[in-house]
Automatic annotation (TrEMBL):
Membrane as UniProt keyword: yes
Full protein name: Ig-like domain-containing protein
UniProt key word Signal: yes
UniProt keywords, alphabetically: Glycoprotein, Membrane, Signal, Transmembrane, Transmembrane helix
Subcellular location: Membrane
Any single Gene Ontology cellular-component annotation: membrane
Top-level lineage group: Eukaryota
Parts of the chain that traverse the membrane: 220-243, 278-299
Residues making up the signal peptide according to the UniProt record: 1-25
InterPro entries assigned to the protein according to its UniProt record, in alphabetical order: CD2/SLAM_rcpt, Ig-like_dom, Ig-like_dom_sf, Ig-like_fold, Ig_I-set, Ig_sub, Ig_sub2, Ig_V-set
Domain Ig-like positions: 128-214
Coiled coil spans: none
The species this protein was found in: Chiloscyllium punctatum (Brownbanded bambooshark)
Length: 301
């Protein structure tokens, strides 16, 4: 044989020799909830009513126990004491129904047909989840709001958040921490108000709860808008008062025309000098303040 073929053939032959002789399927995983029932179904695909079927259980202590031994045309023996009155066996397909699950039922179950192992599953007993609770540390504009989702009973394998039925992911506005149990809202805004939903899951249950978040207070932009609006109102009042005062002064009959005999100063000039410029400025100021307040309002929105 050509030497270049020796190594590939040797590797192929060694792989054939080293492969497992046991052809049973890989171990499966089954989940059950405490207090409920679970079906252990090997899905054998054949009628087993005329075959000997043996179910074996290995618990946390590592001991192997025959929990059910079915022999055709023979009375079915009493199940293993730990599972007594909680097992239902289906002879046609070999499936086993385990009722009223307990934490101590957790372990490895194996079915053998006519002495040959056919299927193995690792049964995990999990506590169902209770309805989660959402708490908040604050509800004011501009602060960092933390929404915390807690599950009083059971352990969640996944936690998710929704805002008005839309999924929330970590980004510029939101941050998810501690396996998604904590939702951080940075520099909260009025637009962050809404219905927040926390969804928790594990292999045997799913629960959710909602929380209505209301954000109170004014943002810095709102305070600026409010300040300029108040300044506009004060300016308008001041201009109105000044205009009324000037109007009154013009109508005072005691003001003499011409030069004051005592001071030698023209009275009309003394009263009106510089007033037009001040009035022009005061009349324009409210419009400037209103425009500024409008700009801050737009920025806030």
């Amino acid at each position: 044989m050509n030497s270049r073929w020796v190594l590939p053939v040797a590797l192929l032959f060694s792989g054939f020799l080293l492969r497992p002789l046991d052809t049973e399927a890989e171990k499966d995983h089954t989940f059950g909830a405490i207090g409920s029932s679970v079906l252990l179904d090997p899905e054998y695909g054949a009628n087993l009513s005329k075959s000997e079927v043996l179910w074996v259980y290995v618990g946390s202590n590592g001991h192997s126990v025959n929990i059910l031994d079915y022999v055709p045309n023979h009375t079915l023996a009493e199940p293993y004491e730990h599972f007594r009155s909680r097992l239902h066996f289906n002879a046609s397909n070999g499936s086993l129904m385990l009722k009223n699950l307990k934490p101590s039922d957790q372990g490895v179950f194996t079915i053998s047909v006519d002495g040959e192992k056919k299927w193995t599953t690792d049964l995990k007993i999990i506590e169902p989840l209770s309805k989660p609770l959402i708490s908040s540390n604050s509800s004011f504009v501009g602060v960092t709001i933390e929404l915390t989702c807690q599950v009083p009973k059971g352990k969640a394998s996944s936690i998710g958040w929704l805002l008005d039925d839309l999924s929330i992911t970590s980004g510029q506005r939101f941050l998810l921490l501690q396996n998604n149990s904590k939702l951080i809202i940075s520099a909260a805004k009025k637009s962050d108000c809404g219905i927040y939903t926390c969804v928790v899951e594990n292999p045997v249950s799913k629960q959710h709860t909602t929380y209505l978040l209301s954000v109170y207070g004014l943002s810095p932009w709102h305070y600026c808008t409010l300040g300029f609006s108040i300044a506009t109102l004060i300016t308008l009042v001041a201009v109105s008062s000044l205009m009324k005062t000037i109007s009154c002064l013009k109508e005072v009959k005691k003001i003499r025309q011409g030069v004051d005999e005592r001071t030698g100063i023209n009275v009309d000039v003394k009263l009106t000098e510089g007033v037009p410029a001040v009035l022009w400025f005061l009349l324009k100021l409210p419009f400037v303040l209103l425009i500024t307040a409008f700009v801050f309002w737009i920025l806030n929105e």
